[in-house]
Amino acid sequence: MLNRAQDVSEAILKQFGESIDEVALVTGDAGVFVVRADDEVVFDKEEDEYDVDAIVRAVKPHVGAAA
Length: 67
Description:
This is Putative selenoprotein. Keywords: Redox-active center. The protein is α+β, with helices and mostly antiparallel strands. It has 2 helices and 2 strands, in the order H-E-E-H. The chain has one domain (1-62): Glutaredoxin (3-Layer(aba) Sandwich).
């Protein structure tokens, strides 16, 4: 799961660079893998299919028009 989390964080940083305040990996229990943007869940491995590009697209509306 860590590799996937790293892949997503790298893709977000590559796409949005300095337009975002922070990308953080936070350890969890039982294989939790959730991506949040502005405290909104945009990906949860329990509910969504893993697709890095789709996750990045889900984050984009939270970055603003500058991205």
